[in-house]
Amino acid sequence: MARIIDGKAHAAALREEAGRRARRMLELTGVQPGLSVVIVGDDPASRLYVKNKGEQAAAAGFRSETHTLPETISQDELLDLVARLNLDPAVHGILVQLPLPAHMDAQAVLAAIDPAKDVDGFHVINAGRLAVGLPALVPCTPLGCLRLLKAELDQLKGLEAVVVGRSNIVGKPMAQLLLQADCTVTIAHSRTRDLPQVCRRADILVAAVGRAEMIRGDWIKPGATVIDVGINRVPSRDPAKAAEGKTRVVGDVAFDEAVEVAGAITPVPGGVGPMTIACLLDNTLTAAARILE
Ligand code: GUN
């Protein structure tokens, strides 16, 4: 049976460390790390994420503010807010929650964020800096995955890593981080031929496809370390509850099968998820220390 990687415990430790670093920064320099989160519209899932981000930042002793804008706001009004936050010396990190309403061009909004304050690491400057190995603000989810891998494995050097998924938010930056850690990296995706066989090569398998339980137990090399980034809602196991519309959350990996084969695996929930906000705090501290200047 695989070891279960406790993302909640790792995230709690990282949040405590962020709190200590924030206090030390305030004492030594008078600077309180500040995070500004912007949300447009009232999608309940996004609202909940944003609430958690704000609360955890405040709990770690950061200056935390949330700008909640109506769905009907124009892109220019959003860009005006971003421009103000870029200039605000008390704001070190800016995060615009995605997705944005359909009438907005998300790339244009992300491009307007000062790269030095881009704690999501979504700006092309940060993506490019990561790709060429310069100091960069790196997307929080892959950063969280890397931390779990480093805690779990003595050495990443030389290991075969397969990343399933090629998004700008997870798959691509994850592959860059693993490459920097001297893994041999394959990026697989929905068009990959014989995906099960590609996955079987992996000493490290990162699943970030957004398809419930797609990766089966017999796709996994015995002893591999499996990081499941997926957060998928599926009907409850109990048919009566499912009939009432009750759901449960599962990953991209069929956990019950994979746990029999893998050496270590992250659960969903309680694996990668909690690490993401903890890494956002870490990135905000990095931004407050102004690494890009
Ligand atoms: N929506 C879902 N995940 C994220 C994230 O990591 N950052 C932002 N800005 N929006 C998201």
UniProtKB/TrEMBL annotation:
<comment type="pathway">
    <text>One-carbon metabolism; tetrahydrofolate interconversion.</text>
</comment>
<protein>
    <recommendedName>
        <fullName>Bifunctional protein FolD</fullName>
        <ecNumber>1.5.1.5</ecNumber>
        <ecNumber>3.5.4.9</ecNumber>
    </recommendedName>
</protein>
<keyword id="KW-0486">Methionine biosynthesis</keyword>
<keyword id="KW-0368">Histidine biosynthesis</keyword>
<keyword id="KW-0554">One-carbon metabolism</keyword>
<keyword id="KW-0378">Hydrolase</keyword>
<keyword id="KW-0521">NADP</keyword>
<dbReference type="InterPro" id="IPR046346">
    <property type="entry name" value="Aminoacid_DH-like_N_sf"/>
</dbReference>
<keyword id="KW-0560">Oxidoreductase</keyword>
<feature type="binding site">
    <location>
        <begin position="165"/>
        <end position="167"/>
    </location>
    <ligand>
        <name>NADP(+)</name>
    </ligand>
</feature>
<dbReference type="InterPro" id="IPR000672">
    <property type="entry name" value="THF_DH/CycHdrlase"/>
</dbReference>
<dbReference type="InterPro" id="IPR020631">
    <property type="entry name" value="THF_DH/CycHdrlase_NAD-bd_dom"/>
</dbReference>
<feature type="domain" description="Tetrahydrofolate dehydrogenase/cyclohydrolase NAD(P)-binding">
    <location>
        <begin position="139"/>
        <end position="290"/>
    </location>
</feature>
<dbReference type="Pfam" id="PF00763">
    <property type="entry name" value="THF_DHG_CYH"/>
</dbReference>
<feature type="domain" description="Tetrahydrofolate dehydrogenase/cyclohydrolase catalytic">
    <location>
        <begin position="5"/>
        <end position="120"/>
    </location>
</feature>
<feature type="binding site">
    <location>
        <position position="231"/>
    </location>
    <ligand>
        <name>NADP(+)</name>
    </ligand>
</feature>
<dbReference type="InterPro" id="IPR036291">
    <property type="entry name" value="NAD(P)-bd_dom_sf"/>
</dbReference>
<dbReference type="Pfam" id="PF02882">
    <property type="entry name" value="THF_DHG_CYH_C"/>
</dbReference>
<comment type="function">
    <text>Catalyzes the oxidation of 5,10-methylenetetrahydrofolate to 5,10-methenyltetrahydrofolate and then the hydrolysis of 5,10-methenyltetrahydrofolate to 10-formyltetrahydrofolate.</text>
</comment>
<keyword id="KW-0028">Amino-acid biosynthesis</keyword>
<dbReference type="InterPro" id="IPR020867">
    <property type="entry name" value="THF_DH/CycHdrlase_CS"/>
</dbReference>
<dbReference type="GO" id="GO:0004477">
    <property type="term" value="F:methenyltetrahydrofolate cyclohydrolase activity"/>
</dbReference>
<comment type="subunit">
    <text>Homodimer.</text>
</comment>
<keyword id="KW-0658">Purine biosynthesis</keyword>
<comment type="similarity">
    <text>Belongs to the tetrahydrofolate dehydrogenase/cyclohydrolase family.</text>
</comment>
<dbReference type="GO" id="GO:0004488">
    <property type="term" value="F:methylenetetrahydrofolate dehydrogenase (NADP+) activity"/>
</dbReference>
<dbReference type="InterPro" id="IPR020630">
    <property type="entry name" value="THF_DH/CycHdrlase_cat_dom"/>
</dbReference>
<keyword id="KW-0511">Multifunctional enzyme</keyword>
